[in-house]
From TrEMBL:
Presence of the UniProt keyword Transmembrane in the record: yes
Highest taxon listed in the record's lineage: Bacteria
Membrane-spanning intervals of the chain: 16-38, 44-64
Protein's name according to its UniProt entry: Secreted protein
Keyword annotations from UniProtKB, A to Z: Membrane, Transmembrane, Transmembrane helix
Organism: Rhodococcus wratislaviensis
Amino acid sequence: MTEPGDGRGDLSIGRLAVYAMGAATAVLVLATAIILVLKPGPVLGLIVGLLGVVGAIAAMGYVSKRMTRNAYGRDREDPKPGSDR
């Protein structure tokens, strides 16, 4: 039986895209809710919105890295100079 992260390589690109976009959407919805509830001024609202965009990008990166590592395993170390690999 295969365990997660054993390098079996069964990653669905469609599932990866849906999960990454879902994570980004969740962060943007949270930022929107904060803006709607707090009703900040223009500058603070812009800062919250920009933090939401940065958080969405970070969430997509985190989800995609985690799913990729679960499918293909951790990165191997780079070979040393002069090695046969």
